From TrEMBL:
It comes from the Eukaryota. This is NIF system FeS cluster assembly NifU N-terminal domain-containing protein. GO terms for cellular component: mitochondrion. Residues 6-132 form the NIF system FeS cluster assembly NifU N-terminal domain. It comes from Caulochytrium protostelioides. One of its GO terms (molecular function) is iron-sulfur cluster binding. The keyword Metal-binding applies.
Amino acid sequence: AVGVRAYHQNVIDHYERPRNVGTMNKNDPDVGTGLVGAPACGDVMRLQIRVDPATGKIADVKFKTYGCGSAIASSSLATTKVLNMDVEGVAGKVRNQDLARELCLPPVKLHCSMLAEDAVKRAVDDWKAKRAQRDARAASAS
Ligand code: FES
Ligand code: FES
């Protein structure tokens, strides 16, 4: 792994003080969970969103990354972007190129920011799948 001194200051800040680290109950119907792994290095990231059913906005977001500093910084930055976003509007708004640029990641670390983009996507997909299931149950019950 690259020495921390080689990282850009923005990375160091998100690395030393990562935002929104933690876990939510994945069985909560309003929580979507994205779990992704990077084949290149074996690092794993879990990112969760909780959507306020009244507003459709992402009211809470948490992540846990078992990986390198760039992956931690990328997920930390990604969480700050999605918080308070409309869940329907997230697609395409958290892009790994943007994360990498803001954090000044070197090319060999691009897959670390890709992990964060994928984790956000999966979390939203999981939330949507849960909602579809719930809607189907409600429809069959009526
Ligand atoms: Fe070092 Fe991913 S390769 S933590
Ligand atoms: Fe693999 Fe960073 S080195 S996620």
